[in-house]
Amino acid sequence: MQSTEPGQRGPQRSVLAVTGDGAGQTDRWLREPVPHVRDVRSALLAKLALLARRGRDPRGLLADQRAVFTPIEAALQAQQVGETEFSHVLTTWRVENVRAVLRFLDAAAAQHDRP
């Protein structure tokens, strides 16, 4: 839905309203963990910000996100065995990135466990 309203310092502004279907899709998206560590900085942080703005508890999303990244950490650690030279360095970098995200997820969840 769209309407307009007078702007305070310029032309009229468009006012948009979400549809019922759009609200449902947004709720599903907010609960869905991101698939890649590289998406934490953009998509996951955006989801956490929107959940906070709505006053919703993020712990379900944080737990689901941990469940996605824990096997990735294990697979990368297994991959490190037997690697040499730069491939070992690169995999070490990836392992440490996943570990940093897992620590972040734990810290964010713990923040919501406090009274």
List keywords for this structure.
about 120 residues, 4 helices, about 65% helix
Write the layout of secondary structure elements.
Layout (H helix, E strand, L loop, with lengths): L1 E4 L7 E4 L3 H12 L8 H14 L5 H22 L4 H29 L2
Antiparallel strand pairs: 1-2
In short:
With 115 residues, the protein is mainly alpha-helical. The protein has helices spanning 20-31, 40-53, 59-80, 85-113; strands at 2-5, 13-16.
> Per the principal axes of the C-alpha atoms, what is the gross shape?
elongated
Number of strands: 2
Protein structure class: mainly alpha
Radius of gyration: 20 Å
- Please list the strands of the largest sheet in the order they lie side by side: 1-2
Distance between the termini: 40 Å
Q: Tell me the helix content.
A: 55-70%
Polypeptide structure, described:
The mean pLDDT is 92. The protein has helices at 20-31, 40-53, 59-80, 85-113, and strands at 2-5, 13-16. Helices cover 67% and strands 7% of the residues. The chain has 115 residues and is mainly α. A two-stranded antiparallel ribbon has the order 1-2. Helix 3 runs antiparallel to helix 4 (85-113). The chain contains 4 helices and 2 strands; from the N terminus they run E-E-H-H-H-H. It is elongated. It has one domain (2-113).
